[in-house]
Please model this.
Amino acid sequence: MKGEVFQLCSVITAAKNALNTQTFIQYEPLSYERGTVFQFVPEAEGQKGETIEGVDSWYARCVYNGMEDVKILAPTAVKDRRVLGFVNTSQNIMLCFYPDDVIHMWMPRWVMDKDRKGWHIIYTEKIWENHPAGKPEYKDNTEIFKAALVEISRFSKELGFEGWSNVFNRSIAMLEGGFDYAADDEKILEEFKKKGRSMPPRTHLELPGHNRDLFEAASNADVFGSMGSWNDGPAAKAAAEGKLEEYNKLSDMLFNQIALAVMYAINQW
Model:
């Protein structure tokens, strides 16, 4: 999963846990974060909106302002999956719900810090005018998601990409429950060590029950990036073999199911 999407999900999950338990937010910045800033809308016309640094301070201000809930809104389709390999293209936003059916939107923008080898994230707040009444409800799409994974795993094998097939099968195993995330983390860490590489500890969101499996499966199956991703070699091979139409159909289906899975996993609890 792209870092900008994961960070947004991480902020929302931490905020929901704090709201549900009526405690201070517990947010651990990711290894590539070098600072997160929130730019609030002005309280009155002609004024400058307040800028707050840090997720903790942002959450405290939102609660003070009356925030009751927080959710993610993700696009379920894109015109060109290839652009997803670039930063600031995910179009995911955070929704904050207030009394009297007031909804505020937060749009993230990532800026590289080359000196500190990481990213600054700037969230900008807007008020959602004329939105649909009430809070959106989301359905568990586990079975449809699993079916999409089975199909694209089969197609991966047909193209000769056993590695990609294994990636999708791994998500299927997560959806089936009982997945040992600790053992899987250790296995991945050992594989990196064998290659002489290091990696920071993997972050797992504090989600309840099956929501965690659904999110982990979606995160693992989010393979749309730049060079070396599902958008690269498999697309070229499918075009060469006259299977580009099937490739696009299955890829669009997977993207759609990932978005639906993320919204249910993050929002519906």
User: Anything to note?
Assistant: The domain at 3-127 is CATH 3.10.450 (Nuclear Transport Factor 2; Chain: A,). The longest helix spans residues 244-267. The chain has two domains: 3-127, 142-267. Helices lie at 3-21, 55-64, 142-159, 162-175, 181-194, 209-221, 233-240, 244-267.
